[in-house]
Write the structure tokens for this entry.
Amino acid sequence: MILNYTDFAERIKGLKPSPVYLFTGEERYFIDEGVKTISDRFLEKSLKDFNYNIYSAQDIDVSRVIEIAETLPVMSEYRVLIVKGINEWNAKERDSISSYTENSSSGTCLILTAIKLDKREKFFKSIEKNGIVILCNPFYKPQLNNWIKQQVNHAGKTIDNDALSILTDYAGYDMLTLRNDIEKLLLYCADRKDISINDVTLVSSNIRSVSVFEVVNALIEKRYKDAIRFLKKAVDEGEPPVRVFYFIVKDIRMLLKARTLLDAGKSFEDAAKSAGVPAFKVKDFSQRVKRFPKEELYNL
């Protein structure tokens, strides 16, 4: 069976126990959360010392993994065995796990993780047939927004689109930062149902994002010396250069789309909406658009 992480999270309570789970993909937060979810479900905490093992693939031989997996649990229904980073093993070593999964012990819950694997491998197909493969890929923007809303709604609260936009601007696609900020927002708004822009601004942990916006604003306003200074500040404070570049490109694309629509006769409001600008930013955004003809945006 193959599931994406969202389906796995929704169906975990109804899924029958599987002898082997493979979490694979580039979103480490989903991998870590998935491993924790399975461990918590099948491991009796009082017997954890006897029935819980966790290893990095580079620190343990496949033969030893199979030996542990075939060991009966102690006074419990399940043993949990976790091996992280099995992409460190070669294909032949992973094939040994394939042989195990075909005749696996019903008392061991084997959890494997890997950043990237070839789906054509015998190993991958064996897990798909005899266990559960969970694909942990990063969210696209619409998926990310839906995920945040689900987290907030499950806590009995709501978040408006403007606050949602600010939250994702601050954290980007960093799921761990988002999860932490959501938890803090829920605590901060414990006595209220609605989460506002002010709440997000006050609570968000990603303070360094202010430096990113300073870079973007300086570029848009043609203050190029300031942009270079702010860029250095952002990087010195630990902001990944790729993330700064992401925000710069995002703003320029929005400006270019809005400028094109304005030149075609659309109103500022319609152009900003079509470009994906949150309602609370429309006034400021319209001032930015006025400063740049389309040709100049192409040359940025």
The longest helix spans residues 241-263.
